[in-house]
Amino acid sequence: MHYGHFDDKAREYVITRPDTPRPWSNYLGSTEYGAIITNHAGGYSFYKSGATGRFLRMRFNSVPLDQPGRLFYLRDQENGDFWSTSWQPVGKPLDKYKSTCRHGMGYTIIESRYASITTEATYFVPLGQTFEYWRLRVTNKSKRERKLSLFTYCEFANLWSTFQDLVNLQYSQFITRATLEDGILGITCNPNFDFDGQDLTSCNRTWMALSGTPLAGVETTRERFCGPYGGYAAPDAVVKGRCSNFLGEGDNIVGGQQADLTLAPGETKEVFVLLGLGTVKSHGWKTVAEFGNPARCEEEFRKLKASWHAPLKNLQVETPDANFDAMINTWNAYNALITYSWSRSASLVYNGERDGLGFRDTVQDILGATPLLKDGVQSRLELMLTGQLANGGAIPVIKPFSHQPGKEPPPPDHEYRSDDCLWFFNTIPAYVAETGDIDFYSKVLPYADRGEATVLGHLRRALEFNLERTGRNGLPCGLAADWNDCIRLGYHGESVFVAFQVRYGLDVYAGIAEKLVQPGEADWARAELAKLDEKIQKTCWDGEWFIWAIGQDGTIYGTKNFPEGQVYMNTQAWAILSGAATPAQTKQALATMREKLATPYGLMLCAPPFIKANPEIMKATLFNAGIKENAGIFSHTQSWAVMAECLQGNGDQAYAYYRAFMPSAYNDRAEIRQVEPYVHCQTTYSRYNVNEGASRVPWLSGTASWAYYSATHWILGIRPEVDGLRIAPCIPKNWPGFKMRRNFRGRLITIEVQNPHGVSSGVRSLTLDGKPLEGDLVPAGRIKPNSKIVAILG
Ligand code: GLC
Fold it and tell me: d(Cα 641, Cα 631) in Å, to the nearest integer?
């Protein structure tokens, strides 16, 4: 069953059936003024932080999942019938009510048609501004004049704090106040405090205006607008058709505004809600005067779209799979940029409680943004490098607005994660390869707590951190966790996953050192690598697959002899990605993955699930079987399997794995996956659970970054390296080829891959602007603007 389709040209996902299995969401705004919206106009807004800057309320995990939000109601004054301009919350019967929702990049347009009235509501936050627009066009499609009342509705969160707002009601319900100043609503918490209009942080002041039509009345408390029992489906004010103009002092302040519209047959009226930060006096009047007109709104909308669409030009593809193209050209890219911006802080699932930049997640998120963004990536990388401590470990969460390199206290020993800084070995070389800026390795940056080092020095400390903390088999300690948040091996327990990460890191480090002509460093890394390889081979191979980990007490996880979590996907994939696996082990480990972990919906993280294992060590036991870390299909890791298959040239298998978790591949059976078919999610229920196939936690997941990277750099195989562009596709055999248009160091070029012999990989011939090249690397110095690279596989 499908609920919508991809409009690739407009870069929109168009929901044509509003009764989606769950509300399907989108992002508006920026990291300053953030906002979430769903196809039912549900959602919330916040300033900088979802937790401590929340000013528009949405009640999490409610029924439905996304109310309230930014609502428009219409009421026919002649017969009293009313509806909302999004299908929910009124929920008119779908044989009479038509609705379309177009989610675009940074905006959402919801259209409706009911009782011969059509509406189009466009929601967005103009670039660089601290207010949002809700533009509504109402058209009378009937042959007679229509008299309608329009009502706006949203709820303001108290104290700009999600927790105070929903929990501390004995306080937060008594500090609120609404004012009406020259037709603009002012919403205040702690109204007796002055606000100077300058620093918006926690100013607790918002304003809301209706422009384009006279204000007929206001209803400023939820208690009056909805009534005690009307709810959002049949709020009192709308049922009655009038507002009381009561200005609330206490209780729940809401943005209820009324306008009366008389529409001739065929006539369209356009009205605007502008809602933003600051007081009416400091921001409201000025903003409405400048922005509250159709021409300005349209101009801001155009600017916003252009700004979001611009980075996409840096990488566009044309392959035989339209679903794949829809993801790579728009949605996966957008998903990666949103995740890069918001980390794990704000969605319909994350309510702000995870504020800040989780170290490992953020370093990985940078990987997805690197080919797309030409600005900002380096400063984000530098921010993370300055979150590394002088001992080589990392602060688990960086607070970007208050981070003070050189002055941050190190965490207590038992809080270090073993993997945090090892992700630099994926991200930093990718950044340097993208930009060609090899001098970045020589840039000196402070550590979080004390001292400083070059970027190369930071990388060395990262390796030393793990080399200095080893367990009884000489493998890296698991510490508080590795990538898997659910394992507590004990400080001296050993993580095989991290062993592979360290191996990968040493190899990468040696390569960088050679490039920088630092042979001593390269020798050091290679010697450490050889020692580590010996330990890995001695301890980690179980006969048919690599083990998972070794607990502090010596228990081996991920082995034939342990009944739960016998096979762990990450150590198979990373044994191969790191180069630790021998050719025979590689073949066998891949076969084991296919046999024991692969399902139609993706590869399970492990199998069988944990039921009896000690949750003090295997926290996965806390979850139901078949989800998240407990034998669920963890989307984040799928790309590692894809890349491992690509490394062996298995293009068909790699692509089969890719499509199994690719959201758009489920567009025609969206009822299975349930969440948005245009974005990645964190996890999907596996066959060990009654919800098999259903996905959860859409949008904010490391999946976005890795899925984008594995598709573009490994399946399509167009990989920047310091010296040039490597052309190493690993595609399905039945693809006749593909095209990519890519920005390579400021030059837009075209790469065309032809596959006349029906193979997956192996470049038989390569030309640059018609001239033949040896091998599969196009030298950077020879690539010009508009260069055309043609590769023939075979
Ligand atoms: C979540 C966390 C991530 C972790 C993963 C596996 O996605 O955000 O940091 O690596 O779970 O536990």
Answer: 16
404: Cα separation from own chain's centroid: 26
Show Cβ contacts of residue 595 under 8 Å, excluding neighbours closer than 6 positions: none
Length of the chain: 794
Q: How far apart are CA 232 and CA 253, in angstroms?
A: 15
Distance CA 610, CA 615 (A): 9
User: How many folded domains does the chain comprise?
Assistant: 2
Evaluate: CB of 632 within 6 angstroms of ligand 1.
Answer: no
At 401 the pLDDT is 83
The residue among 287, 310, 333 that closes a domain is 310
What is the C-alpha to C-alpha distance for residues 176 and 380, in angstroms, rounded to an integer?
38
CATH (domain of 727): 2.60.420.10
For residue 212, being part of any structural domain is answered with: yes
CATH of the domain at 207: 2.70.98.40
Sign of CA dihedral 396, 402, 408, 412: negative
**pLDDT tens, 300-311?**
999 999 999 999
For residue 336, give the nearest of 301, 361, 303 by alpha carbon: 361
- Give the residue-averaged pLDDT of 317-327: 98
In the predicted model, is pLDDT for residue 202 greater than 80?
A: no
From CA 491, how far away is CA 477, in angstroms rounded? 6
Q: Name beta bridge partners: 117.
A: 114, 140
pLDDT for position 414: 87
Q: Which atom of ligand 1 is nearest to the CA of 419?
A: 10
Q: Look at residue 654 and tell me if it is in a domain.
A: no
pLDDT in tens, 591-640: 999 999 999 999 999 999 999 999 999 999 999 999 999 999 999 999 99
Question: Rounded distance, CA 237 to CA 26, Å?
Answer: 29
Q: Domain of 722? A: 718-793
Q: Is 257 domain-assigned?
A: yes
Among 550, 570, 567, residue whose Cα is nearest residue 558 = 567
CA 296, chain centre distance (Å): 30
What are the backbone dihedrals phi and psi of residue 753, each rounded to the nearest 5 degrees, phi first?
A: -110, 125
Residues with catalytic annotation? 485
- Asked, for residue 670, whether it belongs to a domain, the answer is no
Output the pLDDT for position 491.
Answer: 84
Cβ 484 under 6 angstroms from ligand 1:
yes
Ligand 1 contact via 358 beta carbon (within 6 Å): yes
Four-CA torsion 662, 667, 673, 675, nearest 10 degrees: 90
Closest CA to 162 of 38, 50, 28, 29: 50
Above 90 in pLDDT, residue 354?
no
- Final residue of a structural domain among 286, 310, 334: 310
pLDDT at residue 352 in the model: 87
In sequence order, the 6+-apart residues with CB closer than 8 A to the CB of 85 are 41, 71, 72, 73, 74, 110, 112, 119, 121, 136
CA of 485 to the centre of ligand 1 (A): 6
Residue-averaged pLDDT of the chain: 97
Looking at residue 334, its pLDDT comes to 98
Residue 200 has pLDDT above 90, yes or no: no
Whole-angstrom distance, CA of residue 508 vs CA of residue 165: 48
Contact 759, 733 (CB under 8 A): yes
Pocket probe for ligand 1: among 350, 417, 483, 681, the residue whose CB has the most ligand atoms within 8 Å is 483
Report, as an integer, the average pLDDT of 768-775. 98
Measure the CA–CA gap between 208 and 219, rounded to whole angstroms. 12
The side-by-side arrangement of strands in the sheet containing 718-721 is 718-721, 724-727, 777-779
pLDDT above 80: residue 144: yes
Closest-lying ligand 1 atom to the alpha carbon of residue 483:
10
To the question of pTM greater than 0.90 for the whole model, the response is: yes
- pLDDT at residue 194, rounded to an integer: 85
Q: Determine the average pLDDT of the residues in 467-485.
A: 96
Handedness of CA 685, 687, 689, 693 (dihedral sign): positive
